[in-house]
């Protein structure tokens, strides 16, 4: 019997559906750990969370504030999740008060920020007084439990595929989660290694939030997570969630993922309508061509497929864009939210013969478009 999920409210004031609301959006779309019962965003109060993300109704209401949510929900949720992912390191004073209020209502706190609530005296004292827990997803393991690169990744004998991107918050995790589930639905034992706070909140059993680690341990922790998944699960394939972009001047995460996972293939995610890097309005987006060249120059691997985000694009605009990318790059291209994962599964089947034998047992036409929008 599957363990009972905890119920959770996700705080995402004035950011739900926007770039800094990606943690909330991910949890609303899919979570193996929490049953999301509502989102807090006064700008979208009264709407359905699924529809607010541009998809089908998912019956997760959006409330103006915590008071309104508790007045309408049948019971107090188990958890209050801070669902924003801002570039700023610390939350403002007004949001601190909301966290304290949630504790007073009896809710555990789940935090994905670099600011660790469990190191905050005011928060810890309130948690003790209210009998609730604080969990900082990005808090790294103790130094004694961290790993440097050991060169053991070569013993992994199943395909390792990294889902990288051309920018931050462009859909890498969404594609990784969708592909992982599509493979599982086909009877393939696929394991997703999470590398960020949202995928870990969603239920990834292996991985660590690598942007919170001391740089010396990033590559080793990626390798160790993949080795753990390989040894413990005997999987058919391991997918590795990407972070940022190899070309991004502000972040190093993708380099660590490439070096630590030594992937047998890469799927590259790109938002074709985005002109500038998110949170960096003066930095122009790289081209898909330049990102592919950079990835393949750094690692002994090949980009095997392209996935697109329909950010700021109507669904009807995606098909001609997909066709244009396929003609230009001669790589299978799709948008997993609107077109599903069939092309990606076909690409994996073509590149990895052992996977092809297992995929053959299930017709690819049965792969659904996942209800993640």
UniProtKB/TrEMBL annotation:
Alphabetized Pfam families for the sequence: DUF1611 (PF07755), DUF1611_N (PF17396)
Domain D-glutamate N-acetyltransferase-like C-terminal: 147-345
InterPro entries: DgcN-like (IPR011669), DgcN-like_C (IPR035086), DgcN-like_N (IPR035402), P-loop_NTPase (IPR027417)
Highest taxon of source: Bacteria
Domain D-glutamate N-acetyltransferase-like N-terminal: 43-140
Coiled-coil ranges (or none): none
Protein name: DUF1611 domain-containing protein
């Amino acid at each position: 019997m599957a363990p009972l999920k905890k119920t959770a409210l996700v705080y995402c004031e004035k950011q739900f559906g926007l770039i800094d609301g990606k943690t909330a959006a991910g949890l609303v779309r899919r979570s193996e750990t929490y049953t999301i019962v509502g989102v807090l965003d006064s700008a979208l109060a009264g709407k359905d969370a699924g529809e607010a993300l541009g998809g089908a109704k998912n019956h997760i209401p959006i409330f103006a504030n915590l008071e309104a949510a508790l007045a309408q929900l049948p019971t107090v949720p188990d958890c209050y999740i801070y669902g924003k992912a801002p570039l700023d390191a610390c939350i403002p004073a007004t949001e601190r008060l909301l966290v304290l209020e949630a504790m007073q209502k009896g809710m555990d706190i789940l935090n994905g920020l670099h600011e660790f609530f469990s190191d905050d005296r005011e928060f810890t004292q309130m948690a003790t007084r209210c009998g609730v827990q604080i969990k900082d997803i990005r808090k790294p393991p103790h130094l004694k439990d961290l790993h440097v690169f050991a060169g053991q990744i070569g013993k992994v004998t199943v395909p390792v595929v990294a889902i990288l991107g051309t920018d931050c918050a462009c859909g890498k995790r969404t594609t990784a989660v969708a592909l992982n589930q599509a493979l599982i639905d086909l009877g393939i034992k696929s394991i997703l290694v999470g590398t960020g706070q949202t995928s870990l909140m969603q239920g990834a059993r292996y991985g660590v939030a690598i942007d919170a680690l001391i740089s010396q341990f990033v590559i080793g922790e990626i390798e160790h997570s993949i080795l753990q998944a390989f040894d413990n699960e005997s999987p058919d394939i391991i997918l590795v969630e990407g972070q940022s972009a190899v070309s991004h001047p502000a972040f190093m995460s993708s380099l660590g993922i490439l070096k630590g996972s030594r992937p047998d293939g890469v799927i590259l995610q790109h938002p074709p309508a985005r002109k500038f890097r998110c949170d960096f309005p003066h930095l122009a987006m790289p081209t898909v061509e330049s990102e592919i060249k950079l990835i393949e120059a750094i690692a002994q691997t090949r980009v095997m497929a392209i996935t697109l985000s329909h950010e700021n694009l109507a669904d009807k605009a995606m098909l001609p864009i997909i066709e244009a990318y396929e003609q230009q790059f001669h790589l299978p291209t799709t948008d997993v939210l609107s077109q599903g994962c069939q092309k990606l599964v076909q690409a994996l089947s073509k590149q990895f013969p052992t996977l092809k034998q297992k995929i053959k047992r299930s017709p690819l036409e049965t792969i659904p478009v996942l209800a993640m929008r």
